[in-house]
Amino acid sequence: MAEQVQKPIIFSGIQPSGQMHLGVFLGALRNWVRLQETHDCIYCVVDLHAVTVRQDPADFAARCLSFVALYLAAGIDPRTSTIFLQSQVSAHAELAWLLNCHAYMGELSRMTQFKEKTEGKGEKSIGVGIFDYPVLMAADILLYQTNLVPVGADQKQHLELTRDIAVRMNNLYADLFVVPEPYIAPVAARVMSLQEPAKKMSKSDANMNNVIGVLDEPDIIRRKIRKAVMDSTVGITYEPETRPGVANLLTIFGALCDETPQTVAARYENSGNAALKNDLAELVVEKLAPFQTRYHDLMTDRAYLLDVLHQGAEAARQRAVPTLRAAYTRMGFLVP
Ligand code: TRP
Which residue, of 87, 138, 208, 269, has the greatest Cβ tally within 10 A? Predict the structure, then answer.
């Protein structure tokens, strides 16, 4: 137990919106699983973040629960890591308010993700939640005295903001928060869209041919990979700049069998596009099969999933509340 306390604390979260796809699986989840061996990991399903976009109340709870099953099926172990739903630990929303009162419109307006998501929209129709989203993310991270946050390139600016707010509040109220660092995984595959390999594979993509869902049936996976954009150059080489479609397939291939894309390219040097695609499709199907089986088994055991969440929320609350109380106290609130 004593040893566990000294491990660096990791916090990360995924929004339960859209479907989980291969990009998140290979770029994030797989690393989360590995980090459990060496770090004290807290993994959250960030449902409060998801409602910055309208969610259907009729299936939101079920989707949140299915994301918990996805975490577990991928190998996140509730006996080692803390797994919970953000909305079940009210300290997140509470700390977010305190942080809001120390964040500036100017810095939030500069977030590129905010600018992208609201491009072309008039101020009258932009939700305050979308604008304020990074402050809630900062609360998630700072509540747990997190040392390291595994994030993709698109979230680095949000982490910078988290650090800025933490330093600002540390200056005002004695050292309240650990100032977190980004965790850059030694091997994190950056999986791109299958049809438009210049952009990242995204769960909000309207074109489903761009995205391999981790729960896609084998024949769907085969069809999507068969349709993936390549080019007409003869032979397989790894050249992300000039041959992004080919490079993306090699990246996925390499990530699945723990090889570099260059090694895979060398093996297929004299092969045609179809050979690479066929082998990749079979590899994806084979690698996802045990994960899919575990997921479907877990989904038949609702009581177990609810129990994992119950215990996770309890553990998270115990860790979060001291930080929240310290913030209230040092800001001068009358704390009961
Ligand atoms: N903003 C992250 C995303 O959209 C999700 C997220 C919310 C998160 N809170 C977090 C990630 C805290 C890391 C740490 O991908």
Answer: 138
The C-alpha angle 229, 233, 234, rounded to 5 degrees, equals: 115
Whole-angstrom distance, CA of residue 22 vs CA of residue 160: 27
The residues, any chain, with a CB within 8 Å of residue 319's CB and separated by 6 or more, are 42, 82, 143, 144
Task: Render pLDDT for 309-333 as a digit per residue (tens, 0 to 9).
Answer: 999 999 999 999 999 999 999 999 9
**Which residue's CA is the nearest one to ligand 1's atom 3?**
14
160-180 pLDDT, tens digit per residue, is: 999 999 999 999 999 999 999
| Domains in the chain with CATH codes | 9-183+301-330 (3.40.50.620), 208-297 (1.10.240.10)
Answer whether 13 contacts ligand 1 (Cβ < 6 A): yes
Q: Is there a catalytic annotation at residue 117?
A: yes
Is the pTM higher than 0.70? The answer reads yes
Contact 49 CB / ligand 1 (< 6 Å) = yes
